[in-house]
């Protein structure tokens, strides 16, 4: 009975995580977002951001914690906090465990807490961070060695992401007022269950949002595929090779029928959380032709403005309650910035992807008909998720496969 209740609670937490992912994707794809997704390819890891913000919630109290939980998707009840910490534990220990030795995806997933040596973490927070989040904790000297600590954080991210993300913290982002840095980093390298034949990759026309077009390299296949076709949308599922367990990672390509249908599709995903589950292909069908462009994307943004737009104000303000991080009373602290960076490369063999999220905190300073072709020759959305749980790891879109990262 207890196991069934725990499984049900986990499904609810994952549904909240998916809603958070799609809300953030829609916020990023709106014309007013900064940086705008509209004129660039983009990718981010909602999982990385969700875990980093859950860790922030673990160190927050009162209305600040409630607001974090509400934005993360589940209301502000104490049980919600426990649900997100349990979700983070499931992610760190099970969902994002490496599967490469058994022939599945190579995965690295890590959390870290860098705290100024003048402060001592609360045992309850440290126990939660180390036990559930598998976080490393580091005592550092921000006040005298800010540049060195910044380099330490960057080296940690580079190591976890196998060198795909080299600098999450730009020069000057950490200074003598910084007191705490929360970090999450992940790496994913998966091979398609059925690889594309590189000798069949050919240049073809890809139509851009402004009506012009470019010649881009398209991978192709005539094998049966997991595909679903609807009035205004086609969805292609490309599974990755499994390891020795039940986990199944897959990439989904959501191709709107209209050449300029990308943004309305993003909004539909945001406004109808069940839309994704309703449009997941469930069986293989014979195909005429599959054509998917190769692409490589590197994308970074500062998430504070976007999160404020979703209703997360308190952590950035003078009213921030970050009292659950430290053992003794400290000067007023607030979140100064939330930095996120992701990379993805898709080719004939599979996918290489990485992401990192860093939260910086300062003291005092504030801040249904079948059509058997799937020709992805105009802008589309894509996501990588783990299918047994439904957990979304990456979301992105391609407006021009030729844009270099």
UniProtKB/TrEMBL annotation:
Residues 20-401 form the Serpin domain. InterPro entries: Serpin_CS, Serpin_dom, Serpin_fam, Serpin_sf, Serpin_sf_1, Serpin_sf_2. SUPFAM superfamilies: Serpins. Pfam families: Serpin. SMART domains: SERPIN. PROSITE patterns: SERPIN. Belongs to the serpin family. This is Serpin domain-containing protein. The lineage of its organism: Eukaryota, Viridiplantae, Streptophyta, Embryophyta, Tracheophyta.
């Amino acid at each position: 009975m207890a196991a069934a209740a725990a499984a049900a609670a986990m499904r609810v937490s994952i549904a909240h995580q998916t809603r958070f992912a799609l809300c953030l994707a829609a916020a990023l794809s709106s014309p007013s977002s900064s940086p705008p997704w509209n004129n660039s390819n983009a990718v981010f890891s909602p999982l990385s951001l969700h875990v980093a913000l859950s860790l922030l919630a673990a160190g927050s109290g009162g209305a600040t914690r409630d607001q974090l939980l509400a934005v993360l998707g589940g209301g502000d009840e104490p049980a919600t906090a426990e649900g997100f910490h349990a979700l983070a534990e499931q992610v760190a220990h099970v969902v994002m465990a490496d599967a490469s030795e058994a022939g599945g995806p190579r995965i690295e997933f890590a959390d870290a807490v860098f705290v100024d040596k003048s402060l001592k973490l609360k045992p309850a927070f440290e126990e939660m961070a180390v036990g559930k989040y598998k976080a490393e904790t580091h005592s550092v000297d921000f006040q005298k060695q800010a540049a060195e600590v910044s380099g330490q954080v960057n080296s940690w991210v580079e190591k976890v992401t196998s060198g795909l993300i080299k600098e999450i913290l730009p020069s000057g982002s950490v200074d003598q007022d910084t007191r705490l840095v929360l970090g999450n980093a992940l790496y994913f390298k998966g091979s398609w269950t059925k690889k594309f034949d590189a000798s069949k990759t050919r240049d073809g026309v890809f139509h851009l949002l402004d009506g012009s077009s470019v010649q881009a390299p398209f991978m192709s296949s005539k094998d049966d595929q997991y595909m679903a076709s609807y009035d205004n949308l086609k969805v292609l599922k490309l599974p990755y090779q499994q390891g020795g367990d039940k986990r199944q990672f897959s990439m989904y390509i959501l191709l709107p029928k209209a050449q300029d249908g990308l943004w309305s599709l993003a909004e539909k995903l945001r406004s109808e959380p069940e839309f994704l589950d309703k449009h997941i292909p469930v069986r293989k069908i014979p195909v005429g032709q599959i054509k998917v462009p190769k692409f490589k994307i590197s994308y970074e943004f500062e998430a504070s403005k976007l999160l404020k737009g979703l209703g997360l104000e308190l952590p950035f303000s003078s009213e921030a309650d970050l009292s659950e991080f430290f053992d003794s009373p400290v000067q007023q602290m607030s979140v100064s910035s939330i930095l996120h960076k992701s990379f993805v490369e898709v080719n004939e063999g599979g996918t290489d992807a990485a992401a990192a999220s860093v939260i910086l905190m300062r003291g005092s300073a504030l801040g249904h008909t079948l059509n058997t072709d799937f020709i992805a020759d105009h802008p589309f959305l894509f996501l990588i998720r783990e299918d047994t749980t439904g957990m979304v790891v990456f979301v992105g879109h391609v407006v021009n496969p030729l844009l270099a990262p």
